[in-house]
């Protein structure tokens, strides 16, 4: 009985510490599987715990990389935000790789679709000009 209890306690301890050892993507902008009517002005990722973002790439549906001046973070944070150029209509995949505070490396990805080539900022500007008339 004592061995069974010890095994149970060690297993519970292992499971509880391993669940805290990894962080995950809390949200992104654009969100995973978003269908956007215009190009998003920014690419943002928010994680559940402070991390150092080592890699963030954005590729079009045919694998062409989108340059948005990413550089790896030296400071830990939960929020990272990057300005994007105007994206052409199509499907996009963002891939990330991070280093957790405990040194664990994790990665993941999310996808979104752009239906129009205008930026969201252009849409807001056109709408505000329309309201003035």
Describe the structure.
Belongs to the CopC family. InterPro entries: CopC/D, CopC_dom, Cu-Rt/internalin_Ig-like, Ig_E-set. Involved in copper resistance. The chain has a domain at 23-112: Immunoglobulin-like (Sandwich), CATH 2.60.40. It is 24% helix and 41% strand. It is built from 2 helices and 6 strands. It has helices at residues 2-20, 120-132; strands at 25-29, 34-36, 42-60, 77-83, 90-100, 105-114. Strands 1, 2, 3, 4, 5 and 6 form a 6-stranded mixed β-sheet that branches.
Which range best describes the helical content: under 10%, 10-25%, 25-40%, 40-55%, 55-70% or over 70%?
10-25%
How many E strands? 6
Q: What is the count of DSSP helices, taking H or I runs of 4+ residues?
A: 2
The appropriate CATH architecture of the domain at 23-112 is Sandwich
The mean pLDDT is 82
The major pleated sheet works out as: 6 strands, mixed
Main structural class: alpha+beta
CATH topology of the domain at 23-112: Immunoglobulin-like
- Distance between the amino and carboxyl termini: 82 Å
Pfam family, one: CopC
Keywords: Copper, Metal-binding, Periplasm, Signal
Function: Involved in copper resistance.
GO cellular component, one term: cell envelope
Question: Features of this protein?
Answer:
133 residues; alpha+beta; Immunoglobulin-like; six-stranded mixed β-sheet; elongated
Chain-wise SSE layout:
Blueprint: H1 2-20, E1 25-29, E2 34-36, E3 42-60, E4 77-83, E5 90-100, E6 105-114, H2 120-132
Parallel strand pairs: 2-6
Antiparallel strand pairs: 1-3, 3-4, 3-5, 5-6
């Amino acid at each position: 009985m004592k061995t069974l209890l010890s095994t149970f306690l060690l297993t519970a301890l292992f499971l509880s510490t391993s669940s805290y050892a990894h962080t995950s993507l809390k949200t992104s902008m654009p969100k995973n599987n978003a269908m956007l009517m215009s190009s998003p002005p920014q690419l943002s990722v928010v994680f559940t715990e402070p991390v150092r973002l080592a890699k963030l790439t954005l590729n079009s549906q045919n694998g062409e990389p989108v340059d948005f001046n990413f550089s790896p973070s030296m400071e830990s944070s939960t929020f990272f935000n990057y300005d994007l150029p105007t994206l052409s209509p199509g499907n996009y995949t963002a891939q990330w790789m991070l280093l957790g505070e405990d040194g664990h490396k994790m990665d993941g990805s999310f996808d979104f679709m752009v239906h129009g080539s205008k930026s969201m900022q252009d849409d807001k500007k056109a709408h505000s000009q329309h309201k003035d008339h």
